[in-house]
Design goal:
single chain, alpha+beta, seven-stranded mixed β-sheet
Length: about 140
């Protein structure tokens, strides 16, 4: 089993990703725990937001936050009768960056007309190169 650092894109509306950044946590797939247990301490994570608010028709299509998984703990919390699973993240100072200028550069999307298809799973592993490219576009050190 490899202990190598991995890199991930988590998908959520910008409002949810921004709330997680402000409070130092991440949550994916409507609060499911199994996807979060795939991450390890030190893994890089970047949030991609297709929209600004959940269920809205607005198209943001931007990377909104970037950081590193803090530790190995996946935990469940109470939130108005909803009990989502979360991971703590150390977020970096970064600007939001649209995905459109990066579509031809990212291994995940290059040459794919249906590039958004990969994001439907809510959490997707990406290469270190893609993570660095996104970090640079966001003005953050990877």
């Amino acid at each position: 089993m490899s202990n190598a650092r991995k890199y991930w894109i988590a998908v959520a509306c910008a409002a949810h990703a921004r709330r997680g950044k402000a409070r130092g946590f991440m949550q994916v797939c409507h609060g499911k725990g199994a996807p979060l247990r795939r991450l390890k301490a030190g893994d890089g994570v970047v949030y991609y937001a297709p929209t600004t608010t959940m269920g809205a028709k607005d198209r943001l299509q931007s990377f909104t936050s970037i950081g590193r998984v803090r530790d190995e703990r996946t935990y469940q919390t109470e939130m108005d009768g909803f009990r989502p699973f979360r991971r703590d993240v150390i977020y970096h100072a970064a600007n939001e960056a649209p995905i459109a200028p990066l579509l031809g550069e990212l291994e995940l999307t290059s040459g794919k007309t249906n590039w958004g298809h990969a994001f439907r799973f809510g959490l997707v592993e990406i290469s270190a190169t893609d993570f660095a490219t996104i970090a640079q576009a966001m003005g953050a050190a990877p």
